[in-house]
Amino acid sequence: METKKNNEINERVIEENFREILDKGLNLDLNDPNFKETPSRVARAYKEIFTGLGHTKEDVEKIFKTCFPTDYKGMVFEKNIIVFSMCPHHFLPVRYEVSVGYIPDGCGVGLSKLVRIIELLAKRPVLQETFTQEIVELMKKYMHTKGAICMVRGEHYCMQIRGVKQKDVVTTTSAANGVFLTQSEMELKFYESMRNS
Ligand SMILES: [Zn+2]
User: Fold this and answer.
1) What's residue 164's pLDDT?
2) Are strands 145-156 and 93-104 parallel, antiparallel or unpaired?
3) pLDDT mean for each 10 residues of the chain (197 residues)
4) 109 closest CA partner among 70, 141, 163
């Protein structure tokens, strides 16, 4: 995941500008107790929602550092990891269900590590396609695998509460590398596990 050099989230700038949005953009009364502290609340919320922006390559390496030796030759599969993100086009929430599979190559990672990485990647304003691709790329780069695959189902609130107002639309994306690309039976095995578990 590429991040800008200085990716510290500036809460003060968010707060000041959000105050402008409420005050001059939406003509709301900032003396109303409901809105008074809203700009600083939004700034704190953004800091939490976008915590993935403040992470560097070193942080990612640290998460993947420990490897557990294994002779396991099958697929490790995790289904329905739920994470929340924000769409980069409307800054509205997206709920993702992520399923991943990988074939270890002599080494496994703790399953919670995978969840942490996926959470980190989600906590940025990121396009679903990019998010999906980055998951398997990071797995390839930092884990000893013969291949990695992932499928993401996204519920985009920007499609539900505005625009086309389709509240049941689910956007599905997938990405794969290694044996999941070269051996179609491995890819089938992943989708079978998705159906049967
Ligand atoms: Zn959107």
Assistant:
1) 79
2) antiparallel
3) 64 97 97 96 95 82 83 92 97 97 89 90 96 94 92 94 83 97 94 90
4) 70
Q: Compute CA distances 95 → 84, 123, 172, whole Å.
A: 5, 11, 12
| CATH number of the domain within which 82 lies | 3.30.1130.10
Domain region containing 33: 11-49
pLDDT tens digits, 44-79: 999 999 999 977 778 888 888 888 888 998 999 999
Phi then psi dihedrals of residue 36, to 5 deg: -50, -50
Number of domains in the chain: 2
Distance from the CA of 158 to the center of ligand 1, in angstroms? 5
Strand partners for 102: 76, 148
16 and 85 housed in the same domain: no
Q: Indicate if 80 and 148 belong to the same structural domain.
A: yes
Listed residues: CB within 5 A of ion ligand 1: 87, 89-90, 158
How far is the centre of ligand 1, averaged over its atoms, from the C-alpha of 164 (Å)?
Answer: 11
Indicate the DSSP class of residue 54.
Answer: G
Tell me how far the alpha carbon of residue 106 lies from the centroid of ligand 1, in angstroms.
40
- The pLDDT score that the predictor gives to residue 193 is 92
Q: 44 with 116, same domain?
A: no
Q: What is the CA radius of gyration of the chain?
A: 20
**66 and 146 inside one domain:** yes
pTM: 0.90
